[in-house]
């Protein structure tokens, strides 16, 4: 997979290193000569250019990229890169870094963004996840379909503890994608039973989050301990 990363700072280089280890082809783009540090990510391609300029993106052959990541420290730049990548070059997947949480509402499909990653939101979500059992935590927002990646740790008092996945009447527009049980990562099947302490990851419409939290967290009336 070919991935172009706009922004060769610490964030961009870190992403590049991870993706290179997974066998992907990486191009790092930055307009600041001081950011071009080939020795730090020697296996990547490097381009000294302004990623907000069409001529630069033509040189980068963005139309050959499967993914573009807008990872600069400037939200305006990340929005422009995302929009150009999607509308001018038809890049299938555009991921954008949100630096200022106040700007998060802009990072949607209107600006070509498929996935918006807000570092402050992610850090706060991880803190909440570490201390909360039974509370739904939003980890990541997907712009298409107004869906989010959400997490909930199943509390002992949940009515669904011991219930098979296929027997649960899940809310519409929600999908259980992963069960993390101790050190194991499980792809859920209909026969798998939910256990107290399971960390459940869902892709869910935002409008269904409250319903999902109620379903997983509250013991139904008439149920005894």
From TrEMBL:
Single GO MF annotation: potassium ion transmembrane transporter activity
Span of domain RCK C-terminal: 137-218
RCK N-terminal domain location: 1-117
Pfam families assigned: TrkA_C (PF02080), TrkA_N (PF02254)
Alphabetized UniProt keyword annotations: Ion transport, NAD, Potassium, Potassium transport, Transport
InterPro entries: K_uptake_TrkA, NAD(P)-bd_dom_sf, RCK_C, RCK_C_sf, RCK_N, Trk_Ktr_HKT_K-transport
GO CC entries: plasma membrane
Domain of life assignment: Bacteria
Protein name as it appears in the record: Trk system potassium uptake protein TrkA
Organism name: Streptomyces dioscori
